[in-house]
Amino acid sequence: AQKITQTQPGMFVQEKEAVTLDCTYDTSDQSYGLFWYKQPSSGEMIFLIYQGSYDEQNATEGRYSLNFQKARKSANLVISASQLGDSAMYFCAMRGGGTGGFKTIFGAGTRLFVKA
Amino acid sequence: DVKVTQSSRYLVKRTGEKVFLECVQDMDHENMFWYRQDPGLGLRLIYFSYDVKMKEKGDIPEGYSVSREKKERFSLILESASTNQTSMYLCASSLLGQNYEQYFGPGTRLTVT
Asked: Considering Cα of A110, then A111, then A114, then B4, what sign does the dihedral take?
């Protein structure tokens, strides 16, 4: 069965510092996709970054990068130069399974607090 | 501008009522999803659909059913609402394929009393 684990319910980071949010996953599929989403207090879900299981390079999108370690089944999100607006819930997600439409599952989330 | 809309932001229903949550997307996406979000549990997949009239069970389908009669619309039905179905319900859509991100609606906060 597929599973996403986020072990950090909450994290604090000082403004302008980098922070790593952990995500491990479990799947027997060879082909899958990994995603990170941000959910600010307003509630909307915002897509941040995607990593394909066959991608050799770690994905980057602006201040976001995904530290993909396939052998360890980890897909950590790194936010560089944290800003106050980065305070939010962050969810790791995985999509795959080969079922028509590709099932997507989410982790429990990590709440990030950025301190001024 | 891509858009996923949900019929209500807030809904209060009584135990035993039949509840319909509607979701509409205007992006011509094949995939549509229903999740419920509870504190500490993240988003849990209830059902998803990859085509009209097609549906697949997610991780927690018990007590729910879905309907997809048109490509742009995906309905979640609570046949007989119970208090443990009080939650935030999120609808999402995406293109077919595992490398496409999902676009989410604003959510419906359902309270069952």
From this structure: positive
Tens of pLDDT, residue by residue over A37-53, are 999 999 999 999 999 99
Dist. CA B63–CA B61, nearest whole Å: 6
Q: What is the pLDDT of residue A23?
A: 98
Query: Which residues of chain A have a CB within 8 Å of the CB of B58?
Result: 103
Residue B14 has φ and ψ, to the nearest 5°, of: -95, 155
Write out chain B in H/E/C secondary structure. Answer: CCCEEECCCEEEECCCCCEEEEEEECCCCCEEEEEEEECCCEEEEEEEECCCCCCEECCCCCCEEEEEEECCEEEEEECCCCHHHCEEEEEEEECCCCCCCCEECCCEEEEEC
Average the pLDDT over B95-113 and give the result: 91
Which residue in the set B54, B101, B106 is minimally distant from A35, CB to CB?
A: B101
